[in-house]
Each structure stands twice: as structure tokens, then as C-alpha cells.
Design brief:
By secondary structure, this protein is of the alpha+beta class. The protein has eight helices and 18 strands. The chain folds into two domains: 168 residues, no CATH class; 127 residues, no CATH class.
Length: 312
């Protein structure tokens, strides 16, 4: 399945966030916090603040999308999230909003914006939100009575969803991280498997479109290892592996076809990461990540497949 990075093209004047929509099912799967119980006292008058706080963009979070018959994931790098938050205000779009990406709203204004620098000490943590570093947080003032009474208070809307224009890139940016060398290399591969791919595993060669072969004849033990890795990762709150490792596990567990490029990567990754695999430690990220990629049987199958294709 394609994994596409969206980014801001600074040479394109329309690139960036145009509006923030309040929706029932936010794509980033993080609800905002309605601060409706906070009162502002002025003389004898008590008024609700009518502030909504929530995540507008979370860096490096795969977001599922479907267009016609194509399924894919998109994600935003930390640098793109930062640029998006800045341009949102630079372009004066802080008072532009919609309802469910449709009806334009009035009386919904961004009054606070920040990037999470420390997940535990950030303001959002005080409201029970555990946001990763680099997340763009927003607080929006609801001046529209209809929106507040009929959508926020009733729970018809639960989160923010951005609207804007982005370009897509086929190379993952090199962002600083604390991953081990082999995990970092896995992260950098997030998009390499779709480099040059247009749609439905098609590529251009010598000006012509060619179909790319894919294979699904890997053993059931590969599927079972991937499923095992998913289960073990859930037990440790999915803290192990990068997005590509988690997505690869879902692909293998469901028996979906994989390309030759993916098989090459599978063999390369499993060959080098094997030293971190310890079957006696089910909580070690080295073990879990190895299983997510299909484990030892996946390595053997990948090697055999590549040899049969005269690729090694």
C-alpha cells in the first residue's frame, strides 16, 4: 500500500492550511477537549469560555485514505507540521473554519497555537492528552451559539480536521531521532518502496508505463509471526517499530501481495536486525520489530525468492 508524505511547497502560494474543520471523526484520531466548564467571572455575570483544545496535526502519524479504488496512507513530517502551523496565521486563516469539511462557519476563531516540546509537561497533558513531540495544538474560541449548543455540547463534533493544499514527496526527510541505526534505516524506507510508483504498482521506464510484479506465496508462518508481533506490540502500548514496520505487519498478517522491492528490503532488514531478536523476551522492541516483518521464516522465504529471481 502506498505511503505518501505530504509537505508544503514554499514556492506555491496556495500551499498550506486554508481552514480548520470541526468533525465527528477526526482523521488524526485524537479528540479535542471542550473546556466548557471553565467560567469567567465578571461582576455578577458567569460565562463559559467556549474554548476547544485539540491536535490539528500530529507528525509522522500514518493517516489512512482511499481514493476511488486506491488505498494509501499519508503523513506529515515534523518540519511540515511546524511550517503549516506558522503559515496558518501568517496567511490570516485563523478565523476560517468549516463543519464536517462542508458548511463554512462563522464565529470559530483560533486563539492559541503551539507545538508540543515535552509530552509530559505540555499544557495538553493537563487535560489528559498524550501528544508526541512536534504535535501542533490549537485552542479555538466558539462564538457561534448554534455550533456550541447543537454540535459541541451534544457531542456531534469531537475533533479538528485540517483543510489545505499540500504537495507529495517520495523521499522521507532525515529528521533527528533516537532510533538505533537499523530502526532509523527502517524509518527512512517508509517511502522508498513507492519511489517512482504512480498508481497500482505502475512505474515509468524509458517513457513507458510498466506493471510491477508482486508476490503473496510466503508461508503461513510469516503471517503468524506478523500477527504475533502485532499482539506483542499492543501489550506494550505499540511503542515498538516505526510506522512502516507496523504497516508491513498488517500487510503480511492479511496475506497481501508484496513487491520485489519490499522483498529486497525484508531480506536486508531481517538479516541485519536478527541480532536484536530474542525469543525469550517478548517485550523487547528488537524482538517485536523482527516479528512484525515476518521473523526468521520471512527472511528464509525472501532469500529464496530473490535467488529464484536472480537478484542475489
Amino acid at each position: 500500500m502506498d505511503i505518501v508524505e505530504l509537505f508544503i511547497d514554499e514556492e506555491d502560494e496556495i500551499s498550506g492550511i486554508e481552514a480548520v474543520s470541526i468533525v465527528e471523526n477526526p482523521a488524526i484520531e485524537e479528540d479535542f477537549i471542550a473546556l466548557k466548564n471553565h467560567e469567567v467571572k465578571f461582576a455578577e455575570v458567569n460565562k463559559e469560555k467556549r474554548i476547544l483544545m485539540g491536535a490539528a496535526l500530529i507528525p509522522n502519524k500514518p493517516i489512512y485514505r482511499r481514493s476511488e479504488e486506491n488505498e494509501y496512507y499519508i503523513y506529515f513530517s515534523r518540519d511540515t507540521v511546524r511550517k503549516a502551523s506558522e503559515l496558518f496565521f501568517i496567511k490570516g486563516n485563523y478565523n476560517k473554519s468549516t463543519l464536517e469539511h462542508g458548511k463554512a462557519l462563522s464565529g470559530l476563531v483560533a486563539v492559541e497555537s503551539w507545538l508540543v516540546e515535552d509530552s509530559k509537561k505540555d499544557k495538553s497533558a493537563a487535560y489528559g492528552m498524550n501528544m508526541p513531540v512536534g504535535t501542533w495544538m490549537l485552542s479555538m474560541k466558539v462564538l457561534n451559539d448554534d455550533v456550541w449548543e447543537n454540535y459541541v455540547k451534544t457531542g456531534k463534533v469531537k475533533g479538528f480536521s485540517i483543510e489545505g493544499y499540500f504537495a507529495d514527496r517520495l523521499e522521507r526527510p532525515n529528521e533527528p531521532n533516537k532510533l538505533s541505526d537499523w530502526e532509523e534505516e527502517e524509518a527512512e524506507y517508509l517511502l522508498s518502496e513507492i519511489k517512482g510508483i504512480i498508481k497500482k504498482d505502475k512505474r515509468f521506464k524509458d517513457g513507458k508505463t510498466i506493471e510491477m510484479e508482486s508476490y503473496r506465496d510466503y508461508p503461513d508462518s510469516v503471517k503468524n509471526n506478523a500477527k504475533r508481533g502485532i499482539e506483542l506490540n499492543e501489550k506494550v502500548n505499540n511503542k515498538c517499530a516505526t510506522p512502516v514496520g507496523k504497516i508491513r505487519a498488517q500487510q503480511l498478517a492479511q496475506g497481501k501481495p508484496i513487491s520485489v522491492e519490499t522483498i529486497k528490503r525484508m531480506y536486508s532488514y531481517l538479516s541485519r536486525a536478527e541480532e536484536y531478536y530474542d525469543p525469550s523476551d517478548n517485550e523487547a522492541c528488537g524482538t517485536i520489530s523482527y516479528l512484525l516483518w515476518g521473523g526468521k521464516t520471512a527472511k528464509s522465504w525472501a532469500e529464496s525468492k530473490l535467488k529464484s529471481l536472480d537478484l542475489i
